[in-house]
Amino acid sequence: MGNKRLTVREIAKLADVSVATVSRVSRGTGQVSQETRERVLRIIEEYGYRPSQMGRSLAEQRHGMVAIVFPGLAGPYFSELTQGFESQAMEAGTGVHILVTHHRDDADDSVLDMASRVDGIAIHGDTVRTETLRRIAAEVPVVVLAGRPMDGVPAVRADNSTIGELTRHLLVDHGYRRLAFVGSPDGSPDVTDRWEAFQAAHKQARVPAPRNPVRLGLQQSDGVRAAGELLDGRRPPRAVVCANDETALGMLIGALGRGLSVPGDVAITGFDDVPMASLVQPRLTTVRQPIRELGATTARLLISGLGNRGAVMDAVLATEPVFRESCGCPRT
Amino acid sequence: MGNKRLTVREIAKLADVSVATVSRVSRGTGQVSQETRERVLRIIEEYGYRPSQMGRSLAEQRHGMVAIVFPGLAGPYFSELTQGFESQAMEAGTGVHILVTHHRDDADDSVLDMASRVDGIAIHGDTVRTETLRRIAAEVPVVVLAGRPMDGVPAVRADNSTIGELTRHLLVDHGYRRLAFVGSPDGSPDVTDRWEAFQAAHKQARVPAPRNPVRLGLQQSDGVRAAGELLDGRRPPRAVVCANDETALGMLIGALGRGLSVPGDVAITGFDDVPMASLVQPRLTTVRQPIRELGATTARLLISGLGNRGAVMDAVLATEPVFRESCGCPRT
DNA sequence: TTGTACGCGTTATCAC
DNA sequence: GTGATAACGCGTACAA
């Protein structure tokens, strides 16, 4: 194992042909006689020759590879997003490089390094600073995923305003007062949008909104922690609007674990409509977001945009509220 | 944006020096006069020059990049694993390429393609077929992560036998009969080991083990489904040993959602000890696995082993049972 | 200290 | 149908 790989030249010598012919055979391009082709193919097979990617990309001036940058990858959200992205990349014969920043300090360097290894980069939310985004965009095509377009960098995102409908539903249809919002607006553009839609809905319903959101992460464990913060206080909220389903699920688990009734004592809503949302008891009222399609659209935009610039600059995908029982609606 | 990037030659011309000097400056290697260095540095800065990775790796005969291959990335497990892996890779100045197969048919091709883009590959469980693993190992150094060593390919894994202790605890200490196991042994080596340890513990306690495991995936939603299969039947199990925490959590949610008492009606155990395990009510009895260390060890072995072969062949990391309340133990 | 020239592995353009 | 040979961008002996 670990044998040094053979090069075109060596294969050419072994098959007694020129490197050009080996290349033609291995790429299946150009004209090669039946006999020669078979001979070369046999040698290639025998020695397990595979053209070096670095040699190839140097010659072709492309990597056949795009990258997608995430802040982290816990939860089903990123998994779905990746699958949507990869499905389209694959269709275009392009590889996908996943880069996770984990909110590290040197994340920007990693992303800049990526820029010289791929033909295009999709960057999620605000994983990198604006300044870095600009520098990267100067080197390779970039698409912002789940964030706002900027300086000629196109974006693909979901319509977050629908969480306003959910909020209105809680305030008006159910008549709840004292709502809480769980999520850090400074953490991601998506959460910023959702927090703003939450506030806007309050304004429209002429109900005072809470001054601050419960600033926590987007994982289930954060939802459980939020339950601790909100439900153990002396004036617990009547309903909790969570920035995503994971925190809503954590919140639900925390509430039930305290012996509270959901939605009787506290109503809970989420965002995403992940599989678990319809599997828990009570089922989760949420906003359905086409996560997979979000990834797919991003990949298409990125890959097609590699050549022609100035197409779509801001693709906003539609979302829809899904009313189940965790908000207080009867089971249908 | 999208400006074609400058090459060493162009920078050299602009700074009025040779390409060698530019290279020396940008790499910080060799001897360059203070004055020249500053001049070149200024030009590099001004034009935002960054050496092309493909040119560099072609010249250096290395990529400065290793890959880690996963079957999927839902749940906190892969997130932790990745962070451990990346922390070590980073320390060695190596980039990390994450490849997710999603159990696709053409996954093996993707992995083979990776082989010519990186200096080494860590492959999780059995994401690829044995035959493919062999071919890859013939091209680049490979380490199996959470699987068995094979044909000179080293492995890093956790001690799965501890789930036997947990099973014994349920059978002997608590005296439970009719246990069920949730997880697909054919899905991954880890689950195979755990299923076998589960069976072995039964044998040792002279209690008949169930003939078959509940063959489902490793996500929370699978746990909820397992709850449906097991708890709605006419002879529900007294205790359920789940292959990981995610399914155990799903199981717990499913049980509680049915109005059952845990551990009163049914005891539940997991594997991993993820953060949620100690946050739910009742807290989850499980096996603690050093996930992050698993990733870190793999990276170290892979990167150090790039040069010297024949070091560690099978690193088995210790695990420990964590008894909480979901198995029936009193809260301590 | 600096510059020239070659090699890395591949593809593509010409001649033949 | 096939073979030389020139790119591609960089690092680095070797020469100056």
UniProtKB/TrEMBL annotation, chains A, B:
Record's keyword annotation contains Plastid: no
Keyword vocabulary terms for this entry: DNA-binding, Repressor, Transcription, Transcription regulation
UniProt-listed InterPro entries: HTH_LacI, LacI/GalR-like_sensor, Lambda_DNA-bd_dom_sf, Peripla_BP_I
Domain HTH lacI-type: 6-60
SMART domains cross-referenced by the UniProt entry: HTH_LACI
UniProt cross-references to PROSITE patterns, sorted A to Z: HTH_LACI_2
Record-level Gene Ontology MF annotations: DNA binding
Domain of life from the UniProt record: Bacteria
Name recorded for this polypeptide: LacI family DNA-binding transcriptional regulator
Organism: Nonomuraea purpurea
